[in-house]
Every structure is written in structure tokens, then in C-alpha cells.
Design the sequence.
């Protein structure tokens, strides 16, 4: 073999060795940008599906609140941080200045600053409770 061919062969072997070492020491947890984008898209779709499920299961509560005439979009109650976001609206509602006592059966919309409940309550229909404080009476309260 000529010196030129031997030199090129050694250069090729050296380059191959460097590439193999680089591959061997590349962190396995790294994903490509497109992989991160796909994962982010998938997580976004899952969150959207969960939000749609929550909205669907809250439909009767939403309807009750709209019929009651609350001055806000009931779907806001499903969002993180709703209490802080709706605090100015709650402050204008007369119900949030009331202390109420509920009997052993309850249904519909219950809004109060403080709501006193018996130890055991039977819900006789769809029920939505929005209160700053809920106090249960009884031995196990």
C-alpha cells in the first residue's frame, strides 16, 4: 500500500473513532427540538381534553349559577386562581356578606360568606356551594 492510501485510511479510522465516541457520550435524555415540540403539543392537547371534561361535568352547575343570576361566567370557577380573580366580583355580591345555616337537605346554589352545615347533609339535587367559610356541626366536625 502506498503511504498516501495508508494516511487516508488512518484519517478515516480516526474520524470514525471520534464520531463513535461522540455518539457514545451524548446524553440520552436529550431529545430533538421537534421531539420537544411534539411532547409539548401532546401535553397541550391532554390539558385541553381535561378542561373539556371538567366543563362537561360542570354543565349542571353552570346552568344552576346562570339561573341564579351570578354576575360572572361560571366557567371561571374551573380555572386555577379563580378565587383571586373573582374576588372583586364576589365583594359586590350581597350573598358574600351573609352567614347562613343549611338544613339536613340541600340543593341548588348556596352562596354565603359563612355557611353552617349539619354533620350530615343529603343533597337532593344538583348543588353548587360558593363560600368563604364552611363550618360543619356535630361530633365528627
Sequence:
Amino acid at each position: 500500500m502506498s503511504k498516501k492510501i495508508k494516511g487516508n485510511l488512518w484519517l478515516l479510522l480516526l474520524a470514525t473513532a471520534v464520531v463513535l465516541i461522540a455518539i457514545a457520550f451524548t446524553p440520552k435524555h436529550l431529545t430533538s427540538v421537534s421531539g420537544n415540540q411534539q411532547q409539548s403539543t401532546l401535553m397541550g392537547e391532554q390539558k385541553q381534553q381535561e378542561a373539556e371534561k371538567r366543563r362537561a361535568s360542570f354543565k349542571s352547575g353552570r346552568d344552576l349559577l346562570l339561573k341564579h343570576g351570578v354576575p360572572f361566567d361560571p366557567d371561571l370557577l374551573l380555572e386555577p386562581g379563580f378565587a383571586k380573580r373573582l374576588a372583586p366580583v364576589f365583594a359586590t355580591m350581597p350573598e358574600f356578606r351573609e352567614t347562613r345555616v343549611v338544613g339536613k337537605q340541600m340543593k341548588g346554589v348556596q352562596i354565603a360568606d359563612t355557611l353552617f352545615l349539619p354533620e350530615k347533609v343529603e343533597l337532593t339535587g344538583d348543588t353548587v356551594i360558593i363560600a368563604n367559610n364552611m363550618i360543619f356541626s356535630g361530633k365528627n366536625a
User: Anything to note?
Assistant: The chain has one domain: 32-136.
